[in-house]
Amino acid sequence: MPGKMVAVFGVSNLLWMMFAASQAFEIEIFPEDQIFAQIGGSVSLICSTTGCESPSFSWRTQIDSPLNGKVKNEGSKSTLTMNPVSFENEHSYLCTATCGAEKLEKGIQVEIYSFSKDPEIHLSGPLEFEKPITVTCLVPDVYPFDRLEIDLLKGDQLMKNQEFLEGMHTKSLETKSLEVTFTPVNEDVGKALVCQAKLHINELDDKSKRRETTQNLQVYISPKNTVVSVNPSTRLQEGGSVTMTCSSEGLPAPQIIWRKKLDDGNVQLLSENATLTLIAMRMEDSGIYMCEGVNLVGRDKKEVELIVQEKPFAIEISPRHKVAAQIGDSLVLTCNVSGCESPTFSWRTQIDSPLSGEARSEGTKSTLTLNPISFENEHSYLCTVTCGNKKLERGIQVVPYSFRKDPEVEMSSPVVNGNPVTVSCVIPDVYPSDRVEIELLKGDNIMKHQNFLEVVKKKSLENRSLEITFIPTSEDNGKALVCRAKLSIEMEFEPKQRQSSQTFYVNVSPRVPTILVSPSPTLEEGSSVNMTCSSNDLPAPKIQWSRQLNNGNLQPLSENTTFSLISTRMEDSGTYVCEAMNQAGVSRKEVELIIQVAPKDIQLTVFPSESVKEGDTVIISCTCLNVPKTWIILKKKAVTGDTVLKSTDGAYTIHKAQLQDAGVYECESKNEIGLQLRSLTLDVKGKENSRNYFSPELLVLYCASSLIIPAVGMIIYFARKANMKGSYSLVEAQKSKV
Questions:
Q1: What is the C-alpha to C-alpha distance for residues 650 and 635, in angstroms, rounded to an integer?
Q2: Can you tell me the distance from the alpha carbon of 24 to that of 17, in angstroms, rounded to the nearest whole number?
Q3: Cross-strand pairs, 514
């Protein structure tokens, strides 16, 4: 057993030695060999090992200078961070890694450079046509400058190229520049100055070692041809206003500056706008005003002299020297003074009547408020102004009027085609009424015109009217009735005018209506019917459905255009009336509604009885009650066939009955809806004895029967007429065998 353990231990020791040999202790550094770092930036050097679980690291420069960086060790990796990068970091750095008794070292060269800013283009002054100018292309804070190259281009044309190959004596950031002097021409407008700088370090990418700045050429023209316009004039009255406008040519457009020369020789800045407006000018505002056009390359000026003259004391009264004021409104009379700083005011009427208003003065203005305007304000009002020893007076005449409401158009009655109608146009509450002018138009035609020139004896509000009677026609329909009123007052403005209009609708009596019955005017009892009435007139007529009663009166039913009956009965038969009504009249139309029913209540009778003697007269009668338009057929039944009997009003008479007249008699009552049958049996008995003599009783019986038979027929006829609505249609048929 111990021998086996020694063998196992030997094998494992051999495997460990083989694994250790495969993981030899090594060191790597990143980046490899050399790195270029931007001054002011940040850079990290990473040193890592393999083949050692817990290595130790140390960093140093090859000449044992300070690291100028921070070291961070973490497992098998060590990082040296330089932030910010400076000239002190331009060294060869060595990373030493120790693993037990084994030590390894690896180095990296750190080169520094500065090329962080774009070139700058500087001009010695503004660009002016045909004036030399120096352009400087400046590259700031560059290192190492001995690798710098600068190109200056104008558009696509290279103006100058320069390389800075002189040796560097010290490590420092340098600013290098290139200068070119040229004279701008017209062709240079819109071109660009391009300054390109390149730092020749091959290890840098193109973005890091190339920088460029572009500046568009702006060519300037010094201001010239400066002119000034003055409105209204260079000579002004005190209190007036003036506007002066200045313009100057140049590139860029010159800025305009206004100044005034003072008495002491200095100048006063007034405005930097092209237009200078002076208001409420005083005499001391007289003087010389200068307009100067200025831009980056020069200036040009123009002078103008203003003379302000003393303004005399003056009064202005408003609204005007004569004003019309609506009665009931408010009116403010204003008196303004110019040419006096502290005036005093007073108001009065020309005939020294009460003012009937409120006066108020403030500064150089005084107002007289008349509220409300009435007949008492019909005066000339005077405003008196005192300024020192001077006194001025101005007047204004107030003319009250009333014309507040629009005309009113009225008609004596509804407008019906062909019927005379009177139209009146009323102007309410007007003053002065003798200045009113009214005209009435129909469409574009003047129907009547009237002036009211009679003298008004008193001051009061009056109503004025115009009236005309005419007969309208259908051609007037849709036209406008226009009532136009003018109040002419002797004023400086146009006469006041009001008007009202009303569309003219001519009523036309309704035409005979049209009735549509659906499904039909003749119906089977129990069905429904819709009766629709229509009439197109102006104005649209109102529809009224009624039923005509037996006494001739109408029973109102509906005001809808369509009248409906649901589940009709025979009593619904009759005459229905549709009336179309509007303001112009009434028109009507009738429709007959027939409700049909199947025959019923048939009565089949025999007179004098169903059992008679041979030789008797027999009347067989068939009636159908309450069913109009019914066909009645009487038949005698037989084995060999039925015989249709000729009947009169449903009655069949057998004179001198014979034995062969006995049998079954049938009545058939039918119409378009259906039929009904009734039957009876007639028994004819033979005579017991044949007597050859004439008895008085037989004579009486014969006479009585001759009277009774027609009477019975008439009774049956009138009974049928009384119990039926409508009439029978009787069929007279020839005898036939069925």
A1: 11
A2: 11
A3: 534
Mean pLDDT computed over every residue of the chain: 83
- Residue 3 CA, chain-centre distance (Å), reads 109
In 487-600, alpha helices (H)? none
Q: Structure tokens of 114?
A: 């500065």
pLDDT, tens only, 484-498: 998 887 655 566 888
At 386, give phi and psi (nearest 5°): -115, 125
> 230: which 2 tokens?
């003055």
Task: Give the count of alpha carbons within 13 A of 128, CB side only.
Answer: 13
Task: State residue 187 phi and psi, 5-degree precision.
Answer: -65, -15
Amino acid at 491: M
**Rounded CA gap, 587 and 580, in Å?**
5
The C-alpha atoms of residue 438 and residue 484 are separated, in whole angstroms, by 6
What per-residue confidence (pLDDT) applies to 718? 46
Apex CA 398: angle with CA 392 and CA 404, to 5°? 155
Q: Which helix (H) or strand (E) holds 208?
A: helix 206-209
The residue among 534, 540, 533, 536 whose CA lies nearest residue 582 is 540
Domains and CATH numbers, the chain: 21-113 (2.60.40.10), 117-217 (2.60.40.10), 221-309 (2.60.40.10), 314-401 (2.60.40.10), 404-503 (2.60.40.10), 514-596 (2.60.40.10), 602-723 (2.60.40.10)
Q: Is 244 helix (H, G, I), strand (E, B) or coil?
A: strand
> What are the residue ranges in the chain where pLDDT is below 70?
1-23, 311, 455-456, 490-495, 538, 625-629, 688-738
Per-residue three-class SS string for 667-689: EEEECCCCEEEEEEEEEEECCCC
Q: Which helix (DSSP H) or strand (DSSP E) does residue 22 occupy?
A: helix 2-22
Number of other residues whose CB lies within 10 A of the CB of residue 434:
15
Q: Which residues pair with 275 in a beta bridge?
A: 245
DSSP H or E stretch at residue 96: strand 92-99
Q: Where are the beta strands (DSSP E) in 416-495?
A: 421-431, 436-442, 445-451, 462-470, 480-487
The confidence score (pLDDT) of residue 707 equals 53
- Put simply, whether the predicted model's pTM sits higher than 0.70 gets the answer no
pLDDT value for 404 = 85
- Angle 627-633-637 (CA atoms, 0-180°, nearest 5)? 135
Answer for the pair 386, 361: CB distance below 8 angstroms, yes or no: no
Q: Which of 387, 338, 383 is nearest to 364 (CA)?
A: 338
- Is residue 635 within 8 A of residue 645, CB to CB? The reply is yes
Q: Pick from 541, 548, 543, 522: which is nearest to 532 by CA?
A: 543
* Interatomic CA distance for residues 319 and 485, integer angstroms: 26
Q: Which two tokens stand for residue 660?
A: 């062969």
Residue 105 · residue 27 · CB < 8 Å: yes
Tokens read off for 620 = 């067989």
CA distance 157 to 2: 95
